[in-house]
Design brief:
This protein has 152 residues and is of the alpha+beta class. The protein has one domain: Electron Transport, Fmn-binding Protein, Chain A (Pnp Oxidase, Chain A, Roll). Helices cover 17% and strands 42% of the residues. Strand 3 and strand 4 form a beta hairpin. The longest helix has 11 residues. The radius of gyration is 16 Å and the shape is globular.
Length: 152
């Protein structure tokens, strides 16, 4: 793929993975954002996001995560963490996205702040298989495509 990779591109290329990742990210309000501090160490922060044609999110003016992103736009996002039910085979799993944030105009009616769309470099869904004995990790990267790994 050439240029910025948007969520609409993921939906087109791997619709089943995109659908399950949207479901997992939609399972709760609070997501986790990982940014890089000035010294290169990681910082995690709570965040909210929206998934449409793009994955978008906003940050308050002067926030540490905004300063991190302005210095280095590489980020990772983690879905809400839901405890697996007693029947672990019914667990929806968790999802992760990674890439670079690209500043976008402030949406109409939005609070003052900085707003971004994710230029997607990685989409991952982790779950347990039907037997409850194997972890299944499905990932997609632009140019590399879809890969599934299963391990005990």
């Amino acid at each position: 793929m050439v240029g910025r990779v948007r969520w609409v591109d993921v939906r087109r290329e791997v619709p089943e993975l995109a659908a399950v990742v949207e479901t997992v990210f939609g399972s709760g309000t609070n997501k986790t954002l990982a940014t890089l501090r000035a010294d290169g160490s990681p910082r995690i922060s709570g965040t909210e996001l929206e998934i449409g044609d793009d994955v978008t999110l906003g940050m308050m003016p002067g926030s540490l995560k905004l300063k991190d992103v302005q210095r280095d736009p590489r980020v990772a996002l983690h879905s809400p963490t839901l405890e697996p039910p007693k029947e672990v085979t019914q667990w929806v799993g968790d999802a992760k996205l990674a890439g670079r944030l690209v500043e976008i105009p402030q949406p109409s009616g939005a609070l003052p702040g900085a707003y971004f769309a994710l230029d997607i470099a990685e989409v991952v869904h982790t779950r347990v298989d039907e037997t409850g004995e194997r972890l299944v990790v499905t990932s997609w990267h632009p140019g590399r495509g879809l890969r599934t790994v299963s391990r005990a």
